Amino acid sequence: MLEVQNITFSYRKGAPVLSDFSLSVAPGGIYGLLGRNGAGKSTLLYLMAGLLTPTKGRVCFNGANTRERRPSTMSDIFIVPEEFMLPPVSLREYLKLNSHFYPKFSEEDLVRHLDTFDLTPDLNLGALSMGQKKKAFMCFALACNTPLLLLDEPTNGLDIPGKSRFRKFIVSSMDEDRTIIISTHQVRDIDRILDHVIVTESNKVLFDKSVREILSTLRFIDTTDRNLIETALYAQPSVGGANIILPNTDDEDTELNLESLFEFALNKPEELKAIFKSKE
């Protein structure tokens, strides 16, 4: 269990990025952490990983304060930042230096993940493009098999085939004991793989629901029907019509439109909360 308990954090003497912010993440599943640019998503991930010190509150993973950075806790958490540096060494040398910090690291899993991106274990990290480095680093991160994996804008820098393969290798690495939190504003890159959606704004959580609960409560439709558009809970204009959200009163199966849900949560948070509260 990951618990963010009344966190307040600011950079130097600036205004707080997060103020009295709380969040609970149950073990198991792929979580999408969404919010506007500047809403503190990256900061929150660094706090979860114990890389920043809050001025108030704490983050606990399985009961341990992550900021204490105990080896037993750090071996269970891996973070892939949006921007990072890799040393100009071979991948094999990198593994010799770093894999021992993660007891569940699997070279077999690493090879399997690399194969997803058409990469091989004889890579020279210093000779890779930024997109290739991101692929290689994410492969290592997944192969460490940490119970908690934090990914910050993981699809930035990936081409269209790379984004498709990213979704494949994330899903293929999941098991009931692993929790993956993906922070992104590229919602279309991850909408088909999520088990849970969290939307944050300023210092609070606007929305926090499982995808199963979302789809049992809401229907997502792309339509040109003006009557449906006018009666929708939320409508987002699209070419020739709109992506709309309707109540799911007949248990119909539709695919999650994460972009529409995200905009709904940002623009009409109280209305969205009321819809789910009425089902409790």
Q: What does the model show?
A:
By secondary structure, this protein is an alpha/beta fold. Helix 4 runs antiparallel to helix 5 (130-143). Helices cover 32% and strands 27% of the residues. It is globular. It contains ten helices and 13 strands. The strands form three sheets. The protein has a six-stranded mixed sheet, with helices on both faces. The mean pLDDT is 91. The longest helix has 14 residues, at 130-143.
Give the secondary structure arrangement, pairings included.
Layout (H helix, E strand, L loop, with lengths): L1 E8 L8 E8 L3 E6 L6 H8 L7 E6 L2 E2 L5 H4 L2 E4 L10 H8 L8 H10 L13 H14 L4 E5 L7 H13 L6 E5 L12 E6 L2 E7 H7 E6 L2 H6 L2 E5 L2 E7 L10 H10 L1 H9 L3
Parallel strand pairs: 3-8, 3-9, 6-7, 7-8
Antiparallel strand pairs: 1-2, 1-4, 4-5, 9-10, 11-13, 12-13
Helix pairs in contact: 4-5
Keywords:
single chain; 280 residues; alpha/beta; six-stranded mixed β-sheet; four-stranded antiparallel β-sheet; 10 helices; 13 strands; 32% helix; globular
Q: Note the gap between the termini.
A: 24 Å
* Mean pLDDT over all positions: 91
The major pleated sheet works out as: 6 strands, mixed
Continuous helix count: 10
**So what's the overall shape?**
globular
Q: What is the beta-strand fraction? A: 25-35%
List low-pLDDT spans.
none
Kindly summarize this structure in a few lines.
The chain has 280 residues and is an alpha/beta fold. It has helices spanning 41-48, 71-74, 91-98, 107-116, 130-143, 160-172, 211-217, 226-231, 258-267, 269-277, and strands at 2-9, 18-25, 29-34, 56-61, 64-65, 77-80, 148-152, 179-183, 196-201, 204-210, 218-223, 234-238, 241-247.
